[in-house]
Amino acid sequence: MMNKILTTVAFIFSLITGMAQDFQGKAFYKTKRKMTIKMDSTKVATAQQQMLNEMLKKQFEKEYVLTFDKEQSIYKEQESLGGIQQGGIQIIMAGGSDILYRNTKEERYVNQNEFFGKPFLIMDDAKKQEWKLESETKKIGDYTCYKATTTREVEEVKRTITDGNENEEKITKTVKVVAWYTTEIPVAHGPSNYWGLPGLILEVNDGSQVMICNKLVLNPKEKLSLKEPKSGKVVTQEVYDKIVEKKMKQMEKSYQHRGKKGDGNSIEIKIEG
């Protein structure tokens, strides 16, 4: 009799394990990013500045889809193309080219993206955030979610000019991150760089961006494909960050040079992050 019970339990456990391995789904997120805009010009009215601010905010409201199984996930922006023009300023923002692949079992990620038309394949270890699990709960859709918090370091660069010499000071801030996850979907995935909780993350507020899941599709009839991206120059995250920093400094110097030759109008757009 005991052997029969043990055999039944083993069968049920193997069945559940098999189902977990085949478990797949899609989570759709809407994101909003904080940003500020300052316009130093006597020719730009306050009303125009407010209008441009609102238009820019809409450009940073994006939609992403997280495709996942038990161990892998792919986070990708839904394809879109938007543009705004105001007072001679034109901003075009295209989406849909970046792919973030993560393997939670192997604790690594691959980020395929383009920077100034050049394809990169960023491959590195996926470091787990040190989450603090809270007792607070709330409902997101039909799912009961639990609160978790962590922190992240944000580096800001403050530049000043004294007697014609430019000085650069780097300031590091600690920002609190609040996430809401559901154990009803037992995978460790989440949007963007957030993962490692005992359930799918449905909402994140990281101080500069809010990501909220507004739609879930679990175990669709057609099997989902989670292929690791392969295109681009292979670099580590550290190398890629240095490439971006160098290019941004070059652009900043170029705009400063143009500003000195221009009519004194200047525009500063700050995207928090």
Outline the fold blueprint:
Blueprint: H1 2-22, E1 24-33, E2 35-40, H2 46-59, E3 62-69, E4 72-77, E5 80-86, E6 89-95, E7 99-103, E8 108-115, E9 118-125, E10 132-140, E11 143-162, E12 165-182, E13 200-205, E14 209-218, E15 233-235, H3 237-261, E16 266-271
Share of helix among residues?
Answer: 10-25%
Query: Averaged pLDDT, please?
Result: 79
Strand content: over 45%
Gross morphology is: globular
**Poorly predicted segments:** 4-19, 83-95
N-to-C series of helices and strands: HEEHEEEEEEEEEEEEEHE
| Protein structure class | alpha+beta
User: Over the alpha carbons, how many angstroms does the gyration radius reach?
Assistant: 23 Å
Span of the ends, CA to CA? 62 Å
Main beta sheet strand tally, sense and closure: 12 strands, mixed
Main β-sheet, spatial strand arrangement: 10-11-12-13-14-1-3-4-7-8-9-15
Note down, in words, how this protein is organized.
With 273 residues, the chain is of the alpha+beta class. The protein has one domain. It has a 12-stranded mixed β-sheet with strand order 10-11-12-13-14-1-3-4-7-8-9-15, with helices on both faces. A two-stranded antiparallel sheet has the order 2-16. Strands 5-6 form a two-stranded antiparallel ribbon. The longest helix is centred in the last third of the chain and has 25 residues. The protein is globular. It starts with a helix and ends with a strand.
